[in-house]
Please model this.
Amino acid sequence: MRDYNMNDFAYGNLQDDDDDVPSSKAATNSLQKVSMLPLVFLIFYEVSGGPFGAEGSVNAAGPLLALLGFVIFPFIWCIPEALITAEMSTMFPINGGFVVWVSSALGPFWGFQVGWMKWLCGVIDNALYPVLFLDYLKSAIPALATGLPRVASILILTLLLTYLNYRGLTIVGWTAVFMGVFSMLPFAVMSLVSIPQLEPSRWLVMDLGNVNWNLFLNTLFWNLNYWDSVSTLAGEVANPKQTLPKALCYGVIFVALSNFLPLLSGTGAIPLDRELWTDGYLAEVAQVIGGGWLRLWVQAAAATSNMGMFLAEMSSDSFQLLGMAELGILPEIFAKRSRYGTPLLGILFSASGVLLLSGLSFQEIVAAENLLYCGGMILEFIAFVRMRMKHPAASRPYKIPVGTVGSIMICVPPIVLICLVVVLSTLKVALVSFVMVIIGFLMKPCLNYIDRKRWIKFSVSSDLAEFQKENWENEESLIR
Model:
């Protein structure tokens, strides 16, 4: 591998001496990049997409804890994760995101593990959206509740949205803007209409003896995580070193308000019945507050939002696989792009996973993905601190204004939260997650063996920074 200037770090020029690059720097630079506004809405959909699915927090803990959760949780989790994502994404403004960070700090074995866990989480997450989409529509169209119509609807929706992803990230970004505005407008109207009906005493209801902490934390976690997802497509962003930090800042504000305000209106305007606060109940709340027209609008917004989340998540997942291939972690074929600049095989793999997992229930999916996500985040936090300690002078266009001790302290609150999620997880979910992790541990040596035997072609990175080459070459020497 040739020497590389860290200050010019951008897309890895991944090529063999005698072959064309399947996804070269010149090719990607010729594509239209994602600008600020579409990027904010992509982040919005990668993280939350609005309050759809947040009803479980009221069911689990009542109004007061639910509202406090959506106020406090951003400070414990969202802001630290967004700050770390901003710093590391500007340090490594290329596709692959957190895979590159962890590979640079800990070596390609752990880079593969975080990639495997996060990709699996993304596919599991995307399997939720057809489920939620149909949950919101089944009250209006009962035939979608079960049976062949439900299965056919999931298949058709997945294929349509997969095709839109294939057509290009710029199209996905501007589609996300339209969907986001449409999805949030009914909640703005609901918040205004509910004002005369609000009774502040309803917000103060709390019963600590009757709290489902596992459901409560999983609901908050699912609605407010995945800030690092945008890093996987940093190479597709216009001027990422400037755009990404600002977009993440706007995204934190947008996501927090989009969850808190609808719950504030809903819990304050109608009498409490915690058992009713399940997936899709916000549509019923809208009917009580504003009438049937508002309920239909919320249902349409929910359907639209779930399509937006599907699009954004699939984009992140597929570009993550492309980035891993450009770094030589996955076979070169994963780095091939369509004529629209999109990762062909990554999209197909992500769509296949969605179809396989879409039969699971909402709560099963959320619990399984959250536990895997926790494992990936631990590796990211370790990588962030290690890079601060090992390479403090490396170029960071955006840098969190704290020293080494401060960088460690930023990671403490989210790690404590991760420990709580792990402790409260059920044995079934823990076992499934453990099996998935073991599969990842076995896959990496198998891929290394395939690479050495040259059964499948892997790209060789020639544009890794010096501190990356040190880790990668050390692991390669151990394997040999």
